[in-house]
């Protein structure tokens, strides 16, 4: 980090010298997974509320609001579970990242349009309780933080305690020679 | 000697290749199986979720419906006094429309089955325009109806035609024509809707309900005075269970 001038050389030998990085990815996985699973679990049992929360954003046509209302909690839970156990890590993190981008757009646009809604992130029908004010700023901060977790995992999908490495997915040992997501990790040898 | 060595080496390489190939194949099979498991789990979640959201159909007729003096509308079989399901709602509130679409039929069925006494309390929670006036016009018009069944039909019609929260709606002309479609026959209905003469009574009622019931918003559903979680109210099967259980205790 100190010598920027020789940065290229330094980063060239980094792979062998950063055993902590896979643990960072593991931590990012757990954080993103926990939020996704909790958010999905709080919504999936009452899909009518979930649909209503989507409608509250006044962004999607009715048919899409239905699909998102029912589908989103399932996608959140599946992506969360996959991240938790480290299975198809990169794809799951990619899905999580796309969701976060969508949430940031949704909340940002609700804020910009002056809507007064609850984000419905963790259940509810999107209406604020009496006397409650919108909390857009912190909702955005949270989702951008989670987006950063997702981005990190996509870039560095190899992590400790993951089924991907246990099952030999994701090419930690040998790269998959078709179009697997190995990202040239094989040029180590 | 050297020939044998090279042959042994070749064989070893071939065996290694074969082993690698096998490993690859195993991995592929594992991956396909894993994906299949994930898909099945996801499908199971979807099926369960859809069941949670599934509405009942109004099977039989309605229970007897009476419009009370203060504007409360009670739906129950004769003699059924408990459990009481109170519904606090606003014709303009989108979540109330969603509640009606999701769980409205369950309440009608429970009342018809003699398993509950349902009381509708129409109030106006909006304080800003255009939603406030929309809500007041609709509620005032509903108060022009004295026949219980017609009131319920009108009530359903209003939710079906609920205007957006950003536009002026529930116009007097619309309200009159929906009343006709709902089977309202009384001769004074048009005039009553046009004059909006019930706004005052409706606002008084709203204030009284708000101050005694401490509502956090609409819709609020109470069973024997106890507020229901929205995750119960918006899940028809859970709502039914909650009412049935309340009858037992």
Give an account of the 3D structure.
The complex is a heterodimer of chains A (189) and B (249). Chain A is mainly alpha-helical and 189 residues long. Chain A has one domain (22-158). Helix content of chain A is 60%, strand content 0%. Chain A is built from seven helices and no strands. Chain A has helices spanning 7-13, 21-44, 47-56, 62-85, 89-112, 136-155, 163-166. In chain A, α2 (21-44) crosses α4 and α2 (21-44) crosses α6 (136-155). Chain A starts with 6 loop residues before the first helix and ends in a 23-residue tail after the last helix. By secondary structure, chain B is an alpha+beta fold. Chain B folds into two domains: 1-53; 64-248, Glutaredoxin, CATH 3.40.30.10. Helix content of chain B is 58%, strand content 10%. Chain B is built from nine helices and six strands. Chain B has helices at residues 2-53, 94-112, 131-142, 148-160, 172-181, 189-195, 199-213, 230-233, 236-248; strands at 64-67, 73-76, 84-89, 117-122, 220-223, 226-227. Chain B has a six-stranded mixed beta sheet, sandwiched between helices. In chain B, β3 (84-89), α2 and β4 form a beta-alpha-beta unit. The longest helix of chain B is centred in the N-terminal third of the chain and has 52 residues, at 2-53. The termini of chain B are far apart. At the A-B interface, α3 and α4 of A face α1 and α2 of B. Chain B: Keywords: Disulfide bond, Membrane, Oxidoreductase, Redox-active center, Signal, Transmembrane, Transmembrane helix. Chain B: This is Membrane protein. Chain B: It comes from Microbispora amethystogenes.
**Helix content range of chain B:** 55-70%
From the 3D structure, determine the CATH topology of the largest domain in chain B: Glutaredoxin
Helix segment tally of chain B = 9
Uncertain spans of chain B: none
Strand arrangement within the widest β-sheet of chain B reads 1-2-4-3-5-6
Oligomer: heterodimer
Structural class of chain B: alpha+beta
Query: What is the helix/strand order of chain A?
Result: HHHHHHH
Total discrete domains of chain A: 1
InterPro entries (chain B): Thioredoxin-like_fold, Thioredoxin-like_sf
Keywords (chain B): Disulfide bond, Membrane, Oxidoreductase, Redox-active center, Signal, Transmembrane, Transmembrane helix
Protein name (chain B): Membrane protein
Pfam family, one (chain B): Thioredoxin_4
